[in-house]
Design goal:
Layout: H1 4-14, H2 21-42, H3 49-58
Length: 59
């Protein structure tokens, strides 16, 4: 498994030119959220679809 730094370097190096800092930051943000989600799911820290729907309806 790649380290976060290795994954970030690979991601940035594969982005087409020209690229701006906002694009880089957004992609790094998405990677961070996906990693955290996978970690949480692996630990069983999930909620049911019904509970998620209830949370969304409260907004």
């Amino acid at each position: 498994m790649q380290t976060l730094k290795e994954e970030a370097i690979q991601l940035i190096s594969q982005m087409p030119e020209p690229v701006d800092i906002d694009d880089i930051m957004y992609r790094l943000y998405v990677i961070d959220k996906v990693r955290k989600g996978k970690d949480a799911a692996g630990k069983g820290e999930t909620i049911s679809v019904e509970d998620l729907k209830k949370e969304i309806e409260q907004w």
